[in-house]
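#struct-pred
JK: can someone run the complex with zinc ion? inputs below
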Amino acid sequence: VFIMKLLVILLFSGLMTGCRGNSSYSLPPKLLLVSFDGFRADYLQNYEFPHLQNFIKEGVLVEHVKNVFITKTFPNHYSIVTGLYEESHGIVANSMYDAVTKKHFSDSNDKDPFWWNEAVPIWVTNQLQENRSSAAAMWPGTDVLIHNTTPSYFMNYSMSVSFEERVNNITTWLSNSNPPVTFATLYWEEPDASGHKYGPEDKENMRRVLKEIDDLIGYLVQKLKMLGLWENLNVIITSDHGMTQCSENRWINLDLCIDRSNYSLIDLSPVAAVLPKINITEVYEKLKNCSPHMNVYLKKDIPNRYYYQHNDRIQPIILIADEGWTIVLNKSSSKLGDHGYDNSLPSMHPFLAARGPAFHKGYKYSTINIVDIYPMMCHILGLKPHPNNGTFSHTKCLLVDQWCINLPEAIGIVIGALLALTTLTCLIIIMQNRLSVPHPFSRLQLQEDDDDPLIDL
Ligand SMILES: [Zn+2]
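RT: done, structure tokens with the ligand placed:
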């Protein structure tokens, strides 16, 4: 079976090389990466998205994307475009502090390249290719000089710029630029903002908000069709994280456990980053049993599965609230929905849909990691990826130029082959029996032997 599989793979890869040879005459591949912030994976099952479902019908859907810890906006958007865990790309939270340089980072103070330069995002790599450029409509980091490079076309971040204006810019840049824009990104703040405000369990409000999102997708597709970009453009629609329901009945009040003068709080909820002002162990002891709904870790004890330890920007103590719990400082929090929790929680996962010449049509896949998106995008664009934490083979089943086999299919093939072999063997045995029955000599000989004495008489 192994040798047969190998032969099939060799045959297919030969065919693929042949196909690729033909396409080298056409234009360089183009990719548009779209993120709707806070689009929880199961919104797709629980609400109606006629435009998005049409998009998926013509392309692929990954139902769950396992994102990176902490499940916040800036860190996950940077993981999508670098393929790295947060400890490796350096954007470890939406609020950060660097003890060496005494620099602060927040979503409104994010322009210092210092924070971003630990990794190289795909738009920079694409930009350094001959005769190619990148464009961005507000993806986090695209208005920062990372490794001395911004996309050739970008917008300074402002949440007051409408989706339509962002789409109009991006589509203009995609249609008439020289050198051509081959990689573009588009970012939109919803449904994250409404998810925080109403909570994901507020079906009525979320239905309205998600219908608006679907209409925006409809607008984007219509615009791409109108400008003749639709057929040759690869489009990925994804998100950074999900959302879970919070409640004022699930608060963890740090002020009840420790005096504020003992520490600085770099980030609060649901993952608090604590920088002690007194002895670290003393602060840890005070926080350790603060709440049964919160895990408290010294930096060295943060579980390996988070890949969230080896970076100076991760503070000496972190507190991780259980799903739906909010860490507060003796004051109210109006959030009814939040994210940032354990990245193994399904409620924290986004989805991914993709359509275009690089992708299969009508293919559904259960899960990939958010860091797998980067090597896939590099493959589509023909870029050499920087070292990363993603696995290209996880996305092979989504791509038309790759031969993939998943476990159920492999089992099916083995069972099928065994059945075929068994049937064949049975057929051969039956045929042999049928042939041997009317064989004249054997019967005659048998009779001869048995009837020997009778014949003599
Ligand atoms: Zn958010």
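RT: quick notes.
Confidence is low (pLDDT under 50) at residues 6-24, 440-457.
The longest strand covers residues 181-188.
JK: thanks, will look after standup
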